[in-house]
Design a protein that fits this description.
The chain has about 375 residues and is of the alpha/beta class. It is built from eleven helices and 20 strands.
Length: about 375
Amino acid sequence: MSATTFDPPARCWAEIDLGVLRANARAAQEAAGRDVGLMAVVKANAYGHGLETVSRALDGFVTFFGVANAQEAARLSAAGIRSRIYLLGASYPDERESIVRGRWTPCLSSLEEARAFSSLSMTLLPSGETLPVHLAADTGMGRGGFLPEALLAALPELLSLPGLDIEGLGSHLPSPDEDREFTISQNALFAALVASSRQAGADLQHIHLANSAGLLDYECDVCTLARPGLALYGVSPLPEYSRLLQPVLALKARVILTRTLPAGHGISYGRTTVLQRPTPVATIAIGYGDGYPRHLSGRDAHVLIRGERCPVLGRVTMDQIMVDTTPAGGSVQTGDEAVLIGSQGSEIITAEEIARKADTIPWEIFTRITQRVERQTLEASGETA
């Protein structure tokens, strides 16, 4: 007996517009400067947009793809990505052999890490081949990297380690969208560290500090590489630059049930909402199990149905939410499309709005969209790839 294959339609899905993604990458390139390369940050499943899909769309346009760990790097290699793959954080010992075998580029935060990569490179790579590595400097983030004084003290040994090609130096901006004075001083500290490293003999080809906010609003005269993340996906950490970008992702779901419920009827767990009048209520097939934040419960959240803002009622549940469809004229039907993030008619709900009402940040809104949400790619407006 042959197995039966089922292909049920998606109840909720995310549309990923690759044309908009490429336009945002071009905007990031223009903001960074013609002579500055790009490292597209695609960690965390490309901020929920799809690791392989996003990387294929930008492959060749960017110099590096930035990932969080060896598993993400391995997925890019398996997908045939040609742009170089960079590990954004410190590696732990069990990852290092895979990094060397994959010829991925690690950033080094300690002498111990550098010595380990040197030994592995000498053992695993063909004679005469070296592993390109970057040094990570902690200029204020506190998450990883050499402190500036420690880096300069370690440079003689770092530069003498066999099997390594120290080709880059990077650091990270912790607060370019919140503390301009500190960020300017951090830029100056990093520039001085680059100069001192070169004086000590480091041949630095790739110098990088700026994330999305950094490349949009700050000058880094010594940088040869910028690392856009959120900006690629159409959200600016600095509202004044939002005009340069367009959202790549739209989150949508189907209405699966419509009813009119009487006054006095409670909605969802805890009965935090009790209807004050007979109300047309639609049940929509998305919940916190799909990444729609439970923290939106009771926070004046809306979805778009038939081009109108319909308020979310009661608590967000794991698989479903309920909304008052009165603004849509009460004519909503099962199967109608509801927009959780994106536009419909003249109305729009942005990831920034969702984040603000859920008391979080757009990065978390995107990355918490689960694998249960089907990703559908659009190559151009209205065109499914």
